[in-house]
Amino acid sequence: LLHDYKHYMMKEIFDQPKALEDMLTGRLTPEGVDLPELAQIWTVEKLKNLRKVDIVASGTSNHAGVIGKKALEQLLDLPVEVSYSSEFIHEHGTLDERNLVILLSQSGETADTLSALREAKKHGCSTLAITNTAGSTLSRKADCTLLTKAGPEFAVASTKAYTSQITALILLAIWMAQRMGSARKEEVSELLQALERLPGDVDSTLIMTHDAIDQFAQLTYDQEHLFLIGRGLDYVLALEGALKLQEVAYIHADAYAAGEMKHGTMALITPGVPVIALATQARVFDKTVSNIKEVKARDAFVVGITTVGDDVLADEVDEVMYIPSTHSLLLPILAAIPLQLLAYYAGTVRGHDVDRPRNLAKSLTVE
Ligand code: M6R
């Protein structure tokens, strides 16, 4: 099952081009996105009657949800809120039949997320499970299911499930926008073209970043702290990168919205401390570069991640890594790859069991 890989985590990172292809096959059509599993249940009338979308999930699935929120908000005129399952159970806004609650879970067995589903159903909300596990409790109990088709994920760290979840939410956003008549046509057609290129872009990203990340990970061997900074979608991805490093490499890694460093965290930046600066989002690029200059001025060791074609960042950081250029909503999928690889190599260089990190389980069946 492992083929030539030493660990499931590595295999699953490298599975991603294929996983995403499977996710998209049959769903991306020349006319747009086709999701027959949802069309049966959600009439156009029902969709138009929605007042709000809630995305509820734990851990990495929650981080995928935050990126999905941006996609749904860009394409639909609906408010979208993301909650941790463990919080949603106790605190949520008004819920009724005009709320769509999306429960996102790789395993479909996470106790917190199942409790959140019960809470949503109690209030009469429409419920959608997005899961990688057909036949899971979540899938059986929600009104309908969108499968992520990433294939089984054995390592505790979620990698291919995460990128498939983001893709699922983007497909859902396009599908809903098409049916609700709120599609911004040009934006949608750009996104569809970019989705077609996605598996190939992920493959290129693996090739473009693997060796450099491996080398950088060896340098972090004795570092206790690491910071990830970015703005907008880069910030959301930074949260996921930090979680992976904590989980697999046991490094104290923290993510910050780049513009917030000066409001407190800058005091923690000491000479040599590693900082990963995500600068893939064109809209906020210049401001992110200003923030990178601030951490560089405190002698941090900065690794910048940007898109091919950018010739600015290389002069501002100690090391630069490039990912392919694509639609802004898909960049977190590509930029996730070097962060997953970093967690893997930082974990293995420390001698950790990267597939089964201490104190953690693949499926959390207690609240
Ligand atoms: O199966 P789920 O997606 O519901 O799991 C949720 C979290 O426990 C999970 O994403 C966890 O954060 C990962 N191990 C992180 O890599």
TrEMBL record:
Limits of the SIS domain: 43-182, 216-357
Active site as annotated: K362
Swiss-Prot/TrEMBL catalytic activity: D-fructose 6-phosphate + L-glutamine = D-glucosamine 6-phosphate + L-glutamate
GO MF annotations in UniProt: carbohydrate derivative binding; glutamine-fructose-6-phosphate transaminase (isomerizing) activity
Regions annotated as coiled coil: none
Record-level GO BP terms: amino sugar biosynthetic process; carbohydrate metabolic process; fructose 6-phosphate metabolic process; protein N-linked glycosylation; UDP-N-acetylglucosamine metabolic process
Keywords assigned: Aminotransferase, Cytoplasm, Glutamine amidotransferase, Repeat, Transferase
Superkingdom per UniProt: Bacteria
Location(s), subcellular: Cytoplasm
EC number: 2.6.1.16
Cellular component annotations (GO), alphabetically ordered: cytosol
Subunit structure: Homodimer.
Entry function: Catalyzes the first step in hexosamine metabolism, converting fructose-6P into glucosamine-6P using glutamine as a nitrogen source.
Protein known as: Glutamine--fructose-6-phosphate aminotransferase [isomerizing]
UniProt organism field: Aneurinibacillus thermoaerophilus
